[in-house]
Design goal:
The chain is of the alpha+beta class. Helices cover 34% and strands 27% of the residues. It has three helices and four strands, in the order αβαβαββ. Strands 2-1-3-4 form a four-stranded mixed β-sheet. It is globular.
Length: 89
């Protein structure tokens, strides 16, 4: 996602689903097809009109005003300017 476009879009949405991935990461490669399906649902389903999805590459994650991630892939939800962590077990 273009950083300027992303920063301008943030205030316009009620929630943002952030997916941090790293090129060459086996776990990221496994998540990628599933994440593509979720993005299509978020884009098409009217109940998610105010939800933005964002792919965050490792190379740009440090440029965003968000807490750093400890591993890849990481999924976070930004809602009302607060980060919600999704934990998978």
């Amino acid at each position: 996602t273009d950083l300027i476009k992303f920063n301008n879009a943030v205030p316009k949405h009620k929630a943002i689903v952030l997916v941090y991935m790293m090129e060459g990461c086996q776990h990221c490669q496994m998540l990628s097809p599933k994440w593509e399906v979720v993005k299509k649902i978020l884009d098409k389903e009217p109940s998610f009109d105010n939800v933005l999805s964002a792919d965050i590459d490792r190379g740009v994650s440090g440029m965003l005003p968000l807490p750093p991630v400890m591993g890849f892939p990481t999924i976070r939800v930004l809602k009302k300017n607060k980060i919600k962590f999704l934990v998978f077990k």
